[in-house]
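UDP-N-acetylmuramate--L-alanine ligase
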Amino acid sequence: QTDVRPKFSLLSPHYVIATVFDYDHVDMYASPKELKYVYARFFESIPQTGLIIVNRDDAVLRALSSNVKARIVTYGMSKQADYRVHSITRQNDRTVFSITTKEGKEYTFTLNLHGKHNALNATAVIAFCNEYGLDLKKCDRALSLFSGVRRRLELYYDKKNIVILDDYAHHPAEITATIDAVRTSYPHRKIAVLFQPHTYSRTKHFLYDFIESLSKADYIGVLPIFASKREQTDNTVSSRLLTVKASEHGYKNFTYIRNEKEINTWLRHVPKEQLAVLTMGAGDVYVCISTIQKFFEAHE
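Structure:
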């Protein structure tokens, strides 16, 4: 029998960094209200001697962490944040951002990662370090050397103005953040996304949100749904339906892709230079990277 208890409710941490609240896992949580309840109970479980670092820009997290025993420290773009981010730029293929600490001191940090969301995540870590007396100049050096983790805008190919990246994004909000990050890092390139939806329930619930978030790319290929082992096949939703609905809403750059051969057919219609290709999803979409790379190597 599947254990459906929220996995983070089984943890007993002393310190928590809360970056964002987005409704998800709709097969387990019937509504956003139900998921908020679980979050609130989790925050309330942190002891009085603990610390919760909260994204001040997220109104839901602010509310859910307002009645807790633990100490609260905030970060974000908001002027009310204890650690305020007030500049995020892209310089020499790196993300450079400046923050002001709650003591009023200003620091500038450098990341080898893409996107505003990673600068904010790093700020949360910086806040934690500062709260416990770590040298922020050493933190800057550590962050500048951090090369990221697998499946988070992981670079696979960079040659002749073609880059291929892979990302785990599988929720509309994550997709938006990821495409925005790529657009910022490669402002003069077209973006082609090969997306593999994850679970029937998520695809069905967020169908139109997926269309809106994916439409931020210039070319969108959609693979068949990668199902979860805990769910039954749902024939009322499919990747083909997603592309049909996208077309009905005026987005003509969505293509349903069934197999490797159709990936190559789709790629023939995208630019062969000044292009960022992004494989995206929580399933095994990354296995398509070799096909994509071979295609562009054959067209050099």
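The mean pLDDT is 95.
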